[in-house]
Design brief:
Length: 462
């Protein structure tokens, strides 16, 4: 072979060997462009040129930043991912009596447990799920998958006030996993999995409804959709994602985990780890609002009515920062002020904000009581890998030698990086298809055109 031939072959081989390092990032950038192109450019970025970081909270909390779905092309995509029943999902309901009825019911259901009861319930469900793991030295898990059954059991019991039967737990995790996989574009929607849970809930509501009365403004079918959307999708997905981030952060920051395992830390330290995790990996990427009136601003043109505001959490919280420093949460003067893990109080914040950290702490303590966590997987906000992690029981013989540990982590790193190559291509293809299909189906657009905000239902789509 000529010198040029060797050079070209070398360059191609180098490019191929480095695939896991450049392809996923290129694909993400390409996906963002395709999404913007198919979805249509819209929206005011916050923080951004028009809404600087200093005005972020003020604009987000303004009473006119209150439209949720109507009038934004982006809503078609969220409604598509959340079907069936996006029109009664608390997050996407327009302000008004229906929203008030739904939000009040959510508050009542969640307020049914004292802090002690939350602690007991989450501890019990976590232990039961961990008991199901095979009893071998090292168990390799995906953290999101490990945690999902825990929250399915917890939220079933929160709603129905009785333990979750195994087959119902499978229905709930089947539904939640399907929604989150579609949201992350790692899989298409499987409406049959979602419909199976709806059928169960409709039957259950007809024969044995939960103790807290469901919103009277909703039909029986919509009540099933409400429970499915808020409790058996959002609650289960958000808590599983938050726990996957927390446990992966512990697995990849050994000194932090060691401090917790030593048991000498102030109880606030674990809360600091949770806060730092939600600061680096906020569960929301972008929350959007449609303005119902003008938003006046000092020294700038007002934001007109009908604008789509895009509140970018990672950007606002400065999530790209390298240092993972839980200690900064322990002192008032070092806490980051740009931190809104549960939204802004003035504009529809998360109803779980009062106990989500508590319940994460309980689930983390139960896990750390049994296992040391080890991982070398890449930790990104969207975590499409679902958080590969080794659970190593706390026995010296099971932990193995340091050399063995290094080898395990090296193998995991290699497998994780190479798995990202086909996965990112899959995300590109499926994501583009879903953005196109959501736009074609126009669930939100059609709903408002047909009902003018009334009680028309949206067909679930395919
Ligand atoms: C660590 C876990 C969680 C985090 C970080 C989180 C974060 C958030 C954020 C940032 C928002 C506001 C989004 C916006 O402004 O549009 C929100 C809204 C919401 N969250 Fe959570 N969430 C979590 C857990 C939960 C759980 C367990 C539930 C259910 C019980 C839940 C139900 C909701 C609902 C219904 C809304 C919409 C509120 C409304 O529009 O009235 N979340 N969440």
């Amino acid at each position: 072979m000529s010198a040029t031939g060797w050079l070209v072959t070398g360059a191609v081989l180098a490019l191929l060997a480095a695939l896991p390092y450049w392809l996923p990032r290129t694909v993400v950038a390409l996906r963002v462009r395709i999404f913007a192109w198919v979805g249509g450019e819209e929206g005011i970025q916050a923080p951004g040129r028009e809404v600087p970081a200093e005005e972020f909270k003020k604009v987000y909390g303004h009473p006119a930043a209150n439209g949720r779905s109507r009038g934004a092309a982006l809503s078609d995509l969220f409604w598509y991912w959340l079907s069936p029943g996006p029109e009664v999902h608390q997050e996407h309901l327009e302000p008004g009596p229906r929203y008030d009825d739904v939000a009040r019911t959510t508050r009542q259901i969640l307020a049914g447990l004292s802090r002690q009861q939350w602690t007991e319930l989450v501890g019990r469900c976590t232990r039961r799920v961990l008991d199901e793991l095979p009893g071998q030295a090292h168990v390799q898990v995906r953290l999101r998958d490990l945690m999902m059954p825990v929250w399915a059991e917890v939220y079933y019991e929160v709603v129905f006030r009785e333990p979750c039967p195994r087959h119902v737990r499978d229905l709930i995790t089947g539904n939640a996993d399907d929604v989150v996989s579609a949201l992350k574009c790692t899989g298409l929607r499987h409406m049959d999995r979602r419909a199976r849970l709806t059928a169960y809930l409709r039957d259950r509501l007809a024969h044995d409804p939960p103790p807290v009365p469901l919103p009277s403004a909703l039909s029986e079918r919509e009540q099933a959709y409400y429970l499915q959307g808020t409790f058996f999708n959002t609650a289960v997905v958000q808590m599983s994602e938050a726990m996957a981030h927390l446990l992966l952060a512990l697995a990849t920051h050994r000194p932090v985990q060691d401090r917790l395992l030593a048991g000498e830390e102030d109880p606030d330290f674990l809360d600091g780890v949770i806060n730092e995790t939600l600061q680096h990996f906020p569960l929301f990427g972008v929350a959007h609002r449609i303005t119902s009136g003008e938003i006046p601003r000092d020294g700038r043109a007002p934001i007109p009515a009908g604008s789509v505001l895009l509140f970018n959490y990672p950007e606002y919280q400065g999530s790209g920062a390298d240092v993972f420093d839980p200690d900064r949460w322990l002192r008032q003067d070092t806490r980051p002020s740009a931190s809104i893990p549960f939204g802004v109080t003035a504009n529809r914040p998360c109803p779980a904000r009062g106990f989500a950290v508590l319940t994460m702490r309980v689930a983390a303590e139960e896990t750390l009581r049994r296992f040391r966590l080890e991982s070398s997987a890449e930790h990104t906000r969207s975590l499409p890998s679902r958080g590969p992690c080794l659970l190593v029981p706390h026995t010296t013989s099971a932990a193995g030698s340091p050399a063995g540990r290094r080898t395990r982590l090296a193998v995991m790193r290699l497998a994780d990086r190479w798995a990202s190559v086909p996965r990112s291509l899959t995300q590109l293809v499926l994501g583009s298809y879903m953005v196109w299909d959501a736009r074609r189906q126009g669930l939100c657009r059609t709903y408002f055109a047909a009902s003018s905000g009334g009680s028309t239902s949206v067909t679930a789509g395919r």
